[in-house]
Amino acid sequence: MKIAKGESRLVVILPELGIVIKFSIIHLVIGLRVFCDDLSRKGNRLHDELFRYTIEMYGSLKRLLFKGIVDNWREWRFYQRTRHPFCQPTYLSLFGLLNIQRFARPCTIQEIDLWCQLHELTKGAVFKDSHHFTNPDNFCLNGEGLRILDYGGLKTQEVVREFGDEILQHFNPNYSWEERKKELKAKREASS
To answer: Which of 4, 40, 45, 94 is most buried as measured by Cβ atoms within 10 A of its Cβ?
Structure first.
């Protein structure tokens, strides 16, 4: 068993059972401080927190309290609706409080090699959510090819919808950015 902690989710990895459990983290104490601080200030801070600020905005009350739940729920719903083969299967969600996903070992590919190849395969679309697409821990590489493990974000899902099949078909686990730079340089010199 291994435990990993992200900003909004705590992941319990159970390889012997073949599953991963993703628990939502609710930052209740910090959220209460933000709420009390908003009540004590003049102006429309509380109104902004409730109606203007989104779950995607860092430091917002909604993000502190609900981001893990929303990401879990989105991840499960996305997999249930699309069954996209680029996504590691999410079997169950308990109202977003916890998700159960198929276990897979994260990639050991170098970050620069992963990012550059994904950038090429998606024509730069990975910039929509560079946080997820630069981290090899968000992917696994098995006999079926590259799979994404963390796909609860809307921008991540957008990239998966548009380029997931392309990545599945053309991802090269032996890709090297250093070698690719040499190839591109040779092509430029040959065309000059």
So the answer is: 45
* SS3 per residue for the chain: CEEEECCCEEEEEECCCCEEEEEECCCHHHHHHHHHHHHHCCCCHHHHHHHHCCCCCCCCHHHHHHHHHHHHHHHHHHHHHHCCCCECCEEEECCCCEEEEECCCECCCCHHHHHHHHHHHCCCHHHHHHHHHHCHHHEEEECCEEEECCCCCHHHHHHHHHHHHHHHHHCCCCCCHHHHHHHHHHHHHHHC
pLDDT > 70? residue 44 = no
Q: Which two tokens stand for residue 167?
A: 């990545």
Which among 8, 15, 5, 114 is positioned nearest to 65, based on CA atoms? 8
CA distance 149 to 140: 7
Tell me what the pLDDT averaged over the chain comes to.
Answer: 92
